[in-house]
Amino acid sequence: MKINNIAKNPLFICGYRPFFFVTAVGAVAGVALWVLALVGALGAYQPAGGWLVWHVHTLVVGVALASVAGFMLTAVLEFTG
Question: What pTM was computed for the model?
Fold first, then answer.
């Protein structure tokens, strides 16, 4: 498959579009893991600092990386023509 054919796919015309799907899948998986952790189904596993620190770290890193990736994928098309 040529790169030109991929670039014409509506999903990949704007760089941020795939993040909508990835975000939805990640949200469902994150909620499921969080519920399992709250009910104790994950056993004796305890992340360093506790579950609250893990939750804050995941939110901060996830939002930051998604923001940077979305900006970069959108900006590349605008700045390079």
Answer: 0.48
